[in-house]
Amino acid sequence: xxxxxxxxxxxCALLHRPxxxxxxxxxxxxxxxxxxxxxxxxxxxxxxxxxxxxxxxYMDEAERCHRVALMHAGRLLALDTTAxxxxxxxxxxxxxxxxxxxxxxxxxxxxxxxxxxxxLFGEHLHAVVDGPEVTTAIQSSLAGKGFASVSVRPVAxxxxxxxxxxxxxxxxxxxx
Length: 176
Hints:
The protein is of the alpha+beta class. It is built from seven helices and eight strands. A hairpin with a 2-residue loop joins strand 6 and strand 7. The termini are far apart.
């Protein structure tokens, strides 16, 4: 099984007690428990002073890292701590929208003035907006379209929000 192969590979890489370890998708194909164990081990290695480079597609894993490089299409988009990367968003410009039928609500959100971007985020929606004043417009618009019990609140941006925004900005720059 993939989890055993991954653990064996990591064990072999650590036999000679390296100061730097490169891990390419270390948790790909492993079960959630093994994934947690991998990250516990990575945290332990880091605490012991080992530099660990990790490639991952999982933004929740990248959130655990001290520094993150965001790459897309072979280009470096950003490199910093997660806290600094999240500063790309002014306060109040990432909103969580909770309502019934989020996928249908997404279509309505994407066309609203002041909404820069919107995406499904689990069972809710994340909307990147021009400013916090758009909150009321989102609530009114969705309620007017028949969505019951609409809740809109500002949230801290996720690393996924940062990554998507960075990709869009890079693509816009290429079009210029």
